[in-house]
Amino acid sequence: MNQTVLPQFACFLMRGGGPITRSEIILILLVAGAIMLVGICWQLIDKWIERTRGRNWPRVSAVVDLVSVAFCEDNTPSLKADLNFPYYLATLTYFYRNPEQQTGDYSRRFGDKAEAEAWANSYKGETVNVHVDPSDPGRSVLREEDL
Q1: HEC profile of 99-140
Q2: Helix 22-52 crosses helix 5-14 at what angle (to 10 degrees)?
Q3: Can you give the pLDDT at residue 37?
Q4: How far apart are CA 41 and CA 30, in angstroms?
Q5: 78, 38 Cβ separation under 8 angstroms
Q6: How confident is the model at residue 56, as a pLDDT?
Q7: Are 92 and 67 in contact (CB under 8 A)?
Q8: What is the pTM of this model?
Q9: N or C end: fewer C-beta atoms under 10 angstroms in the chain?
């Protein structure tokens, strides 16, 4: 925050009542806008990290052995820019050897239960390529473009 905003914010917190001035309204709107901007940027950065994570790790063949669909309802308040609507989470659990047997999972959100089940069941028993962390063979990523 810049030096002129801090005294105004302190005055706003210490004021004893009376009508809200124009500068206080502007300050409130600026703070609310900054909070929304941080939420949007955080979500964009999180999605970018998820897309790029593990892309340079070596690939290993894995078999999707378990599939599941769960109804999720997130009622926790958050700073994310998206609204927390109920959804179905389809999860693919895969097994691979590197050199010992390891496991990992990949999840995707759906608005419709039948669509989530059809997507998950289409991968049951399929062989997919997963990216394995060379420094920790128990850590792997199934990237969307590898499905």
Answers
A1: CCEEEEEEEEEECCHHHHHHHHHHHCCCEEEEEECCCCCCCE
A2: 120
A3: 87
A4: 16
A5: no
A6: 87
A7: yes
A8: 0.65
A9: N
pLDDT at 62: 96
Type of residue at 43: Q
Cα(42)–Cα(71) distance, rounded to whole angstroms? 25
* Helix, strand, or coil (residue 9): helix
Q: In what order do the strands lie in the sheet with 87-97?
A: 101-110, 87-97, 59-72, 127-132, 140-141
DSSP three-state, residue 64: strand
The pLDDT-based confidence of 40 (bands split at 50, 70, 90) is confident
φ, ψ at 69 (rounded to 5°)? -130, 130
Q: What angle do CA 93, 96, 67 make, to 5 degrees?
A: 15
pLDDT (tens digit per residue) in 55-103: 889 999 999 999 999 999 866 555 454 556 789 999 999 999 988 999 9
